Amino acid sequence: MERGRTIVGSMAALVDDLLELSRLESGTLALEQEPFSVADALQAVSAGLLPIALDRGVRLQVSAPPRLRAATGDRRRVEQIVTNLAANAIKFAGDRGVELVGWFEGPVAVIAVRDEGPGIAPADRERIFERFYRMADHEPVTGTGLGLPIARDLARAMGGELDVASMPGVGSSFVLVLPGPAGAIPVAAMAVASGAALDQETDRLRTLALLQAGAAATHPDRDDRERAG
Prior knowledge:
Order of helices and strands: HEHEEHEEHHEEHH
Helix content: 40-55%
Shape: globular
Strand content: 15-25%
Radius of gyration: 18 Å
């Protein structure tokens, strides 16, 4: 009976995700586009996921802009995207940290979900937004394989973009870029803003990799102990 309930639950989740994708593709998904506080949205996601993070021994931190700084989008859907990304990060962070960060760059708002997990190989990074794609080492993890495609489609439906910066052995940063308080901006301008935010997160990961390499060189015995157990 327990196995049957699990199977039914998985099928129901798959049907829900497929319906969501269908509405996105047909343009029938209703979105309530309006300014919302990025800080309030990040705090709401953190509050919802904190019990899970504590249970797994993962540090969940929020670094938000002032509450009055607003992005434009459907707040409920933005929280859905960030919750999906942060929940995935918590799954793979081990006993390390996950951070929700928000800031503004010119006409856009940027939200990054950072983790210190195993990172994503370049070959996988090119495919993780494909429907039903699952990385080889993620097979034991439950899910429909549609969470990231839905998240990206939702971001684009709101006039934004979603992408990822990652380095194997260092961590990952999923970067959601949305229009700022002035509302929609041209697609080309959004692509430039998204690319700049992604480059910034890639540089941060490179710096972190150098710091980790320096720490390992300074304390080789500690590094050996960590690998051993």
